[in-house]
Design brief:
Layout: H1 2-9, H2 27-32, E1 40-43, E2 46-49, H3 55-64
Antiparallel strand pairs: 1-2
Length: 69
């Protein structure tokens, strides 16, 4: 659900780069990146995670990261 919302929000924004890390195939990388919960959005040292991330939470996180939506 968070993935779908994220991609809807950044549609037509080629300057925004999203990297998905599969924790099953890259558990060490996910751990080193501070991913402790699924889903997690990360920008720099800031993360947003939760069982259900609302559209408003994702928008706020992206705006706090300085991304223009």
């Amino acid at each position: 659900m968070a993935r779908k919302t994220l991609y809807e929000l950044i549609d037509n924004k080629p300057e925004i780069d999203v990297e998905e890390v599969d924790i099953v195939t890259n558990p060490l990388r996910a751990w080193k990146d501070g991913i402790r919960f699924i889903p997690t959005l990360k920008n720099g040292d800031k993360t947003l995670s939760g069982i259900f991330l609302s559209r408003a939470e994702i928008q706020f996180f992206l705006k706090e990261a300085g991304l223009q939506l």
